[in-house]
Amino acid sequence: MPELFHRFLLIFIPMFAAMGIIDNVPIFISLTESLDRPAKKQVIRHSIITASLIVVIFILIGNWILKMLGITIADFMVGGGLLLVVLSIKILVGEEEVGRVLSGAGFVPLGTPLIAGPALLTMALLLVNLYGLPLTLLSFAICITLQAIVLYQAEWLVKLLGKGGAKAFAKIAAIVLAAIAVMLIRRGVFEIIKGT
Fold first, then answer.
1. Is-contact 10 136, C-beta < 8 A?
2. Domains of the chain by residue range
3. CA–CA separation, 111 vs 113, rounded Å?
């Protein structure tokens, strides 16, 4: 039993870190600041369902899909990074437009590439190859449940900061989002160059 628990921790801890459970909160707040409470809950549901489907499918058939299509994780990094750059610019420049565009933010970018991003997909494939399918799926189920709980409780941060503070926080989160995008693109390009 201690050995099994140790193996579980070896999967759970890196998966928790790769998902960025806490890191996704300010981005979620910035994406949903113009939405009412029911719409925010819908965004959370969409993001959790989207991320769960992507990760589980990727765990089960990821290696086969990538080989068949000739797609690398580096390609995911660059593509996801470009998407996040566009999104962060929209948040910083035009709030009204962003509110309209991001009513479906639960699917993209929150569900993917933020929750189910290149780091998590890569980690999931690595862990399933090292420790097997059952423990990897169990660890992911716990991580995604924790992510849902954290997002559902994110609203108290807005109450704590106030309306003006929340808007300022949203702008800062957009800059962080742009930085994440640059990091993904940089790492993806570096991996592509290293692989050639």
1. no
2. 2-195
3. 6
